Give the backbone structure.
Amino acid sequence: MAKSSVKVIDPKVSYTKSGEQLRVIILGKIERWKEALLMAWVAAWIFCGGVVFVEWQKTSDEDTQIAFFAFLVFWAYFLWRAGRTMLYRMGGNELVEVNADELVLKKSFFTFGKTKSFFLENIEDFKPVKLSKTSFVYTYENGWWNLGGEKLCFKYQGRYVKFAMQVEEKTVTTIYSLINRQIKENIKKKS
């Protein structure tokens, strides 16, 4: 097995390459002040939801209870989204691994996450995601308060799979080249 060492592309992205295996790690960390602001937002959201919950318990009017319940359903959904984003920003990362047979993607929250494997032969149309920098979608997806902004995608069994969240534009080209080259090399070795 060839010796591998960690190479840093930018502060959020590093990789190792050893023979037929390439591992790219993309960190979800943000600046400390942004992390603190996100925590304050989640805390304020929990406080507001708690106030509404207490009022819901106090009221006896059925229509008001229904309105409070509907509000709390939406509140819980957005708490889940904000909490998930906060956890990812505190200690999350994306692992992209290309080995002899497959491309493996894992989005982790600290050490927990779901791994998805894709056979190299079935990967089609691997490319960077192109969005206009002036579009609303680009601005929203790349906000540090949001999970999203994937920069690479490929087609697998009829569905597009996106990954590489909120990576700098200049880094996307490097990551794309590394992964694309490794996929092509591994497919060529198998045939």
User: Anything to note?
Assistant: The radius of gyration is 21 Å.
